[in-house]
Design brief:
alpha/beta; 22 helices; eleven-stranded mixed β-sheet; about 40% helix
Length: about 700
């Protein structure tokens, strides 16, 4: 059954005619196919339903929707093979989903919904209702055109489809459509067979490249901060007694739950040692003393490192590998750093950050990988087993598995825990296009197109491949020494307890909305729950909507993944924080925003940033299933407009690079979000080697 609803892979550009009945879709599809000398896909439903009308004198019924969907995709797949560069589809499964929800049964078959959302198209042409109604045997709701148009429009926005509203005469619609389609087709002129093979090998469809080129052309706007989230307005704070209750809530439920600890761990240590690399490049011990060098360069990082290096967890190891007898302070420091970083020494500069010694105990040193195992044994364990997933760089696969062999058995015996550890790499299909300053694909010296890693936002794909009742997310470098484990564990349990409490209520309401017995009091209770407890904001005029429209909006807003995010008080650390933002349509939402997303030339925006009270430590507890136990497709909740465009150079040439929306930023923009104040001790990232000298990393 599933294969019958799936698109066959293709590099053909696909454009969908989308909108209510009797709005000129078929006419326009034929016109466009003629203009581009290609095929178009008729609406299979008309053939199917006309036959049904002729036989039974009946219009469409819910039982017809799946056969219609199967026939539509079969027709599309067949005509794709006959298309010339572009294919025009008179409808798609997303339109079938709209009719199922708004026209017939109030919801959508899960299988139909799955492929309505996963099948992809380059552009939707939404046809307006400014055309005369033309009655026929199958059209039966001439008085609901405005309502249906709004439903079609909201659906395209909800699922972040690229769309254009077409209004006016047939000639005006055709002209407008062609102008926008040309923007899609233009980049194809530059793609050779070699280019297409490169895309195929990376698993990247041309449509994604086209979309990225358009993003470079249009630019990514700064976010519009409405106000900072503070305690009482977007951030919750719980008393000690309340926290104990939430921990108990989690502890009582955990034996029946599947738990997973998800750790982004692909970061290399090279950036952590940047100042030290500069030191061994710039310092010549034979020409000047260490004090003269530090005075001359005012290198505070080197001063701090040298003053505290005896406290580093690998100090004794390095000292045993170098000869320093009779050496000056400068020679000693130089030899130490060189042994620490270079390939001839320990090569720490090229290690994954997760496998460096971070903490020194009487029993030996511990890596972040090992410390995450210890944490998992406390809050991510069920029936003696803890599941962890690390996203790592492919070149580090062997190193991590060797560390697992060593550390897991050691932690297992100390915690009576069996560890199930899995790994994944960032997918090459999530790499993003680089362009030159004219927004054309940047080419390497061999003529190939330059693609770059899409940043940690690409890991939403890796997260989407996981499934559990609760997923804990924490960065690899944010670990604590053993004496602080209990505080961290309790904090995580509090977040998980909140998730379970809010999720149970959301599930109850979601199920109620799927039925037919919702009262006005029910709808008001659900509305208040979403606003007060899940921080959801509604557009103006919700109170005046019809009961049907209220149910539709409430259903859409409550059926989303939930994230509970720990927030620490702002201590001046660089990075993101919690804010209320307003998008281009005026919708307000609670988001984690990075400083790079904010217009620093706008005094009012900078003022909001400077008045923020809390900081994002990347401490998330996530619920990714709906009330039926089905996993959400997390890719449906990404805001592509929260990425970053940055300037780079390669081989002496300027280029622009695209970073995908961050994993906990735009990649989770359309999740329901709860921010909770957590203890500062839970936040101990190691961004530079000198961070290891902080008391929080001294065991």
């Amino acid at each position: 059954m599933e294969e019958k609803l799936k698109q066959e892979p293709s590099n053909i550009v696909k454009v969908v005619l989308f909108g209510p009945e009797s709005t000129g879709k078929t006419t326009l599809a034929k016109q466009l196919a003629t203009h581009y000398k290609t095929a178009w896909v008729p609406e299979y439903a008309r053939e199917y339903l006309q036959d049904k009308w002729d036989r039974e004198q009946k219009t469409c019924e819910p039982k017809d929707l799946l056969p219609i969907a199967e026939g539509q995709i079969k027709l599309e797949n067949s005509l794709t093979k006959k298309a010339n560069q572009i294919l025009f589809c008179d409808t798609d499964l997303l339109e079938t989903k709209v009719y199922s929800e708004a026209y017939y049964i109030g919801n959508c078959d899960p299988l139909l919904e799955k492929y309505a959302l996963s099948n992809t198209y380059h552009l939707y042409l939404l046809t307006n209702i400014d055309t005369p109604w033309e009655a026929d045997d199958l059209r039966d709701k001439p008085n609901e055109r405005e309502k249906m148009f709004q439903y079609f429009h909201d659906t395209l926005k909800r699922y972040h489809r690229n769309f254009l509203i077409l209004s006016g005469s047939k000639e005006e619609r055709l002209k407008n459509a062609i102008e926008h389609i040309e923007k899609l087709l233009k980049p194809m002129i530059d793609f050779s067979d070699k280019d297409l093979k490169q895309l195929e090998n990376k698993g990247i469809l041309k449509e994604k490249v086209f979309s990225q080129i358009e993003t470079f052309k249009e630019g990514i706007p700064f976010v519009n901060l409405e106000k900072a989230a503070i305690v009482g307005e977007g951030i919750s704070r719980f008393s000690d007694d309340e926290q104990k209750g939430l921990i108990s809530n989690f502890e009582n439920a955990r034996s029946k739950l599947s738990l997973l600890k998800f750790v982004p761990a692909s970061g290399a240590a090279s950036r952590m040692f940047k100042a030290m690399f500069n030191f061994i490049d710039a310092y010549k011990p034979a020409k000047e003393s260490l004090l003269e060098y530090i005075t001359r360069t005012d290198d505070k990082a080197v001063r701090q490192f040298v003053d505290g290096m005896e406290q580093l967890p690998f100090y004794d190891l390095i000292l045993g590998r170098i000869t320093i007898e009779g050496a000056s302070d400068g020679e000693k420091a130089y030899a130490f750093v060189k042994e620490m970083l270079t390939e001839e020494g320990l090569n720490y500069g090229f290690f994954p950050k997760g496998l460096l010694p971070f903490h020194k105990y009487s029993s030996g040193s511990a890596t972040p990988f090992e410390e995450h195992l210890k944490e998992a044994a406390l809050y991510a364990k069920t029936e003696g087993e803890a599941n962890l997933h690390f996203t790592i760089s492919e070149q580090h696969d062997t190193m991590f598995k060797e560390e697992q062999t060593s550390a897991a058995s050691r932690v297992s015996s100390n915690t009576n825990t069996s560890f199930n550890v899995s790994y994944s790499n960032q997918k090459s299909a999530t790499d993003t296009l680089a362009v030159d300053m004219n927004n054309e694909p940047f080419r390497n010296s061999d003529g190939s197109i330059l693609f770059r890693p899409g940043g940690h936002g690409a890991l939403i794909e890796n997260l989407n491949d996981q499934d559990a009742d609760i997923i804990f997310i924490k960065n690899i470098d944010n670990v604590v020494i053993e004496k602080n484990l209990a505080v961290v564990s309790d904090s995580k349990k509090v977040l998980a307890g909140i998730l379970l409490e809010k999720q149970a209520k959301a599930f109850e309401y979601a199920e109620l909305l799927e039925g037919t017995s919702s009262t006005s009091e029910d709808l008001e209770s659900i509305f208040n729950f979403l606003q007060v407890e899940l921080n959801v904001r509604f557009s103006g005029g919700f109170e005046t909507k019809s009961v049907t429209d209220k149910i539709t909006e409430l259903r859409e807003k409550i059926n989303r993944p939930i994230r509970v995010c720990g927030m620490v008080k702002n201590e001046g650390e660089p990075g993101g924080g919690p804010f209320w933002i307003k998008d281009g349509s005026g919708a307000i939402s609670l988001q984690i925003i990075e400083s790079a997303q904010i217009d620093m030339n706008d005094a009012s925006q900078v003022s909001i940033l400077q008045n923020s009270t809390h900081f994002n430590p990347v401490d998330l507890v996530c619920g990714i299933r709906n009330y039926k136990g089905q996993k959400y497709n997390l890719l449906d909740y990404v805001d592509a407009k929260q990425g970053f465009i940055t300037g780079k150079t390669k081989e002496g040439k300027d280029l622009k690079a695209l970073e995908l929306p961050g994993l906990w930023n735009g990649a989770m923009a359309y999740w329901n979000t709860i921010f909770v104040e957590v203890p500062l001790v839970t936040f101990n990232p190691v961004k530079t080697v000198n961070d290891l000298l902080k008391p929080s990393h001294q065991a």
